């Protein structure tokens, strides 16, 4: 996907959402207006939390795939990450995404004794654990 395609896709998505907001405002259906605005806000917050992760190479790689593929991405992040072993989790993600088919990708990252990375395509998860000390 080239830069123009990326721009046009983003513009199209935003235009669709604004059109929905306009229609619901005209109809006086402010419950749906609030729902759309809340959904946007939640999605932006989830994406911002992802972008702020300490694994910068991983984040850049995911954003590259988000912009250059037809996959729709969402995030559930429960850590800020350590930044260690960035290359390992990036490699795991690239290996995974090159093999999957589908539409919706969910990236979940949780922190407990280890880091748990779940890459989910259309409801089918693949999990990777990364020790806080040793890597994936």
From TrEMBL:
Keyword field: Kinase, Phosphoprotein, Transferase
Q: Flavoprotein: present as a keyword of the record? A: no
Return any one Pfam family short name. SPOB_a
Q: Which SUPFAM superfamilies match?
A: Sporulation response regulatory protein Spo0B (SSF55890)
**Alphabetized InterPro entries for the sequence:** Sig_transdc_His_kin_SpoOB, SPOB_a
Quick check: keyword Transferase in the entry? Answer: yes
- Gene Ontology molecular function terms on file: phosphorelay sensor kinase activity
SpoOB alpha-helical domain ranges (all copies): 9-51
* Domain of life (superkingdom): Bacteria
Report the protein name in the record. SpoOB alpha-helical domain-containing protein
Tell me the organism: Macrococcus hajekii
The record lists the lineage as: Bacteria, Bacillati, Bacillota, Bacilli, Bacillales
């Amino acid at each position: 996907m080239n830069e123009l395609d990326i721009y046009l896709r983003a513009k199209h998505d935003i235009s669709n959402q604004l059109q929905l907001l306009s229609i619901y405002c005209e109809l006086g259906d402010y419950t749906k207006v609030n729902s759309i605005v809340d959904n946007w806000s939640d999605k932006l917050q989830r994406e911002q939390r992802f972008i702020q992760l300490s694994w910068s190479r991983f984040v850049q790689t995911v954003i590259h795939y988000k912009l250059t593929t037809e996959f729709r991405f969402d995030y559930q992040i429960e850590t800020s990450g350590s930044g260690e072993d960035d290359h390992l989790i990036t490699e795991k993600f690239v290996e995974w995404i090159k093999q999957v088919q589908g539409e919706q990708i969910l990236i979940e990252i949780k922190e407990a004794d280890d880091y748990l990375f779940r890459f989910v395509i259309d409801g089918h998860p693949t999990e990777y654990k990364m020790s806080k000390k040793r890597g994936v």
